[in-house]
Amino acid sequence: xTTMFRGAVIGIxxxxxxxxxxxxxTKRVNVVALCDPNEATREWATKDFxxxxxxxxxxxxxxxxxxxxxxxxxxxxxxxxxAIEAMNRGVNVVVEKPMATTYEDAAAMAAAATRTGxxxxxxxxxxxDPWFLAAKKAIDEGLLGRIIEINIAVNYGPTAATWRxxxxxxxGLQFDWGAHLVDYSLQWMGNDVRAVAGFGYxxxxxxxxxxxxxxVTHIYFKSGAVAHLTSRGKAxxxxxxxxxxxxxxxxxxDWNWGDNGFVRVWTTVGGHRAEVQVPYVKxxxxxxxxxxxxxxxxxxPLLVSADSAARVINVLCAARQSAAQGSMPLPLA
Length: 333
Hints:
The chain is of the alpha/beta class and 333 residues long.
């Protein structure tokens, strides 16, 4: 008989409801509680989960409900205190990316997991992106040879209309989509970062409390490779998603959101330039929560370890500090 686990979500007003659905769709987790400080979300949040108790206080929910798993889907600066509070009560945690807005918070979350025996994992769902997996396949199979340069860019710029547009709650422009860009690079290149530099542009007159309009993170690897990761809120045209230069080939990919595309590898075959198409590798986002449920059931290794998610925060914090110091390259904490 399949063991059923008791799950909950904190922060249900936006994509938190999607997290609740993915918990349920594992067929191993019953969503027994939902929490949001905004009472107005009660009716909308519980429509699909009529048997779930609704709370406006995370502390009250964690004290009253016997839980195996809670997903924290809140402004980024709330991830650490809520996750640590949950683990202190013996509850395992999924947090939305990014893990935190400071490396100290990320390290404290990992330490809490070790101390309590619970786990904390981060919803780096884009490790399952078909285009990312196709690029990883091309790199792992040696089609590019030794990597020299990585360029990844996204057109993204939140406004002050939501909390994502503010430095305190969000951490900065790169702490949103930029966290995925950093994670892509680290998954391809491994943990051999030598230094990080950052650059940010804020429209003149824009309050410093709001996130930048344009941000670039440069990662310098010990292998000699460099990655340039750009979040562009002011762009007038779409960038290439990936442009990766290697000694044997160059990989490109555009912003195709479908599952049936391919990355292009430009290389030399028989002395002539040729294009090799590597098909996207299909992997449903649901696989993240299926993995979490499997870990709860039988300790299947987690797709996203706390340490790997904390490394992303380490890079982002170094880039933010570098940008504040004139874009000087800095070592990781």
